[in-house]
Each structure stands twice: as structure tokens, then as C-alpha cells.
Specification:
It is globular and about 40 Å long. By secondary structure, it is α+β, with helices and mostly antiparallel strands. α3 packs parallel to α4.
Length: 181
């Protein structure tokens, strides 16, 4: 079923290594497309090899396209916080460096109040401040093809996320949007 362009919204989420973050979000009902890439850096057309040096300013990021009539941004952000350590600066799992920082990058200013609400609720769970960026998307470049859908292509490939989290995402649903999954 083809979803009309107007029914799809975008959010860009940096949750450490983009292989696992992409695979995680692909499991969620209402997510219609994902793409891994690099966000909010200071060079043009970066390659993975360049981003890996931590000199480009880019974060490994997943472009998540979703159908808001099935899943809401608030739910997606709550799921995002379940997949990261939001107090860890430039590190998720065993991956360290500024490219592995966490962030929510938005393109629609109307999304900011939702982002702020979810941040405030998440902050109540922690004594230390959240280390998650919440910024407008400045730029985004798609990663090379071999990174796209990496864990589908390489089921035994490296992932910082536990397998149980993928199962959790498959069974989660945004009840506020009427999903009955």
C-alpha cells in the first residue's frame, strides 16, 4: 500500500551506532521507511570513513519516516529513550566518539513542543542532565549503500542493542493512535 506523501512525517534520531538504531525503528508499527546517514556536521558529502575520524562533526543518524495516523512522534521519542543511555555523552554501548552522540533533529518546528515534553518527562527519571541533543536538522547526508539495512543484510553483524529490544519494538504500539497490535 502506497502512503501519500502528505501522510508521512520525518524525524532524525541519533542513537549511537546507526545499524542497530535503524533496525530498532524498522520494527515499530507506523514507521514506513528508515535510512542511515550523517547529521549536523560541518563538511559536505561526508563518507563513513571521514565521519569515523570524529573530525567532521557529524552524528550517525537514522532518518525515520512515519505515518502519524498510526504512530505519533511522542511515542517514537519514548521508544528512542528506551534504546539509549540518555546521560552518556558521545558513547552508546562499546561505541565511543562524537559520531555516536545521541540527538533528536527535527525539520518541522511544530514538533519542538512534543520533543520538549518528552525530554521533560525523561529528565524526571535521571539525576544527571540528559546528554541528548535536540536541535533543528542543519544537514543530513545518506550513508553508503552497504550501511543501509545493515542488520537485515548481516543478521549476525555487530549491534550495541540487545536482541530483546528489537522484539520489544515489534510488539510495541502507539495505543493513543488507535493501533491494536
Amino acid at each position: 500500500m502506497q502512503i501519500e506523501q502528505t501522510l508521512v512525517k520525518d524525524i532524525y534520531l541519533a542513537g549511537g551506532c546507526f545499524w542497530g538504531t535503524e533496525h530498532y525503528f524498522k520494527q515499530i508499527e507506523g514507521v514506513v521507511d528508515t535510512e542511515v546517514g550523517f547529521a549536523n556536521g560541518h563538511t559536505q558529502n561526508p563518507t563513513y570513513k571521514e565521519v569515523y575520524t570524529d573530525t567532521t562533526g557529524f552524528a550517525e543518524t537514522v532518518h525515520v519516516r512515519y505515518n502519524p495516523s498510526v504512530v505519533g512522534l511522542e511515542f517514537l521519542l519514548c521508544m528512542f529513550f528506551k534504546a539509549i543511555d540518555p546521560t552518556s555523552l558521545n558513547k552508546q554501548g562499546h561505541d565511543e566518539g562524537t559520531r555516536y552522540r545521541t540527538g533528536i533533529y527535527y525539520t518541522d518546528p511544530e514538533d519542538l513542543p512534543i520533543i520538549e515534553t518528552v525530554f521533560a518527562e525523561e529528565q524526571k527519571k535521571w539525576q544527571q542532565p540528559l546528554a541528548v541533543e535536540k536541535l533543528p536538522l542543519e544537514n543530513y547526508y545518506s550513508a553508503e549503500e552497504y550501511h543501509q539495512d545493515y542488520l537485515d543484510k548481516n543478521p549476525d553483524g555487530y549491534c550495541h542493542l540487545p536482541l530483546s529490544l528489537f522484539e520489544f519494538a515489534r510488539n510495541a504500539s502507539d495505543k493513543t493512535k488507535g493501533s491494536t497490535r
